Amino acid sequence: AKQYNGMCGFIVAGPNEQGRYDVSVLLEGNTEPKVLALKAGNLQLDAQALKAYIDKKRQESARRVPQLEDLAIVWARGKGLSSKALTAKLAPVRDLEEGHVLLKIDKFAFSQMALGYLMKGFTRTFSAYHSFYHFPDEGFYRSACWGYCTVVESAHPKVAVGTRLYGLVPPSKYQVQLVGGTIPASRSGDPAKVELAMSDVPFNLRRFQEMEVVS
């Protein structure tokens, strides 16, 4: 009937032998829901409600017990590579938002080139090399290094939990990171890649945002 057009309801059973679904709707002024028998052609998905439901379930599944804690190696700006510049910072790992992944850093190492950039410090010329993974505390920075990491949580549809990556990683235990996109493996043998979204990286260094999928 036309009076039910545009109303929201829930499918509670079906389809039956006639191909109809039982849909529960609550009419204005009624305390008990009314059940309608509708064909699939009379139904329309409420995309907004579905998105809200998925977001709610993601938030529920993202609650960690116990809370994860990150340990990061950071440097104080203006002190180069001296012992006074180096320190460790503890912080709780924040929950994932849509499009993000949680990386667990498995291994990292500082190459000779990375140590050279650290010796130069956070200067106008070399600051870009220390800006791949922004550190929130004022006056400190993390300088990226080469290593391996594993996706332990994912809110991105194309990056699965368990994916192992190789590339530039922060000297930390964990990293919550926005994913910019994915690149499939090529026919010529190039591995699949996950492109990380980083706001402070200049164009000539953006190739380092790509991490190779190793397993």
- Total count of strands: 12
Gyration radius (Cα, Å) is 25 Å
Shape by Cα distribution: elongated
Low-confidence stretches: none
Averaging pLDDT over every residue, what do you get? 87
Strand order of the largest sheet: 6-8-9-12-11-10
What fraction of the residues are assigned to beta strands by DSSP? 35-45%
The SSE order reads EEEHEEEHEEEEEE
Give the termini separation: 55 Å
Sheet/helix structural class: mainly beta
Mind describing the biggest β-sheet? 6 strands, antiparallel, barrel
Oligomer: single chain
SS summary, helix count: 2
Helix content: 10-25%
Can you walk me through this structure?
- The protein has 215 residues and is mainly beta.
- Helices cover 12% and strands 36% of the residues.
- The protein has two helices and twelve strands.
- The strands form three sheets. Strands 6-8-9-12-11-10 form a six-stranded antiparallel beta barrel. A three-stranded antiparallel sheet has the order 1-2-3, with no helix packed on it.
- Strand 2 and strand 3 form a beta hairpin.
- The chain starts with 8 loop residues before the first strand and ends with a strand.
- The mean pLDDT is 87.
Output the keywords.
215 residues; mainly beta; 2 helices; 12 strands
Topology, element by element:
Layout: E1 9-13, E2 20-25, E3 34-39, H1 47-62, E4 69-76, E5 86-92, E6 100-109, H2 112-120, E7 140-141, E8 145-154, E9 164-169, E10 174-183, E11 193-196, E12 210-213
Antiparallel strand pairs: 1-2, 2-3, 4-5, 4-7, 6-8, 6-10, 8-9, 9-12, 10-11, 11-12
What's this, in brief?
With 215 residues, the protein is mainly beta. 12% of the residues lie in helices and 36% in strands. The strands form three sheets. Strands 6-8-9-12-11-10 form a six-stranded antiparallel barrel.
